[in-house]
Amino acid sequence: MTALDVLMLGLALGVFLCLYRALRGPTPADRAVSVDILGVLMVGFCAVMTVATGKDLYMIVGLAWASLAFVGSLALAKFLEGRSFDD
Question: Quick check: is 87 in a domain?
Answer without folding.
Answer: no
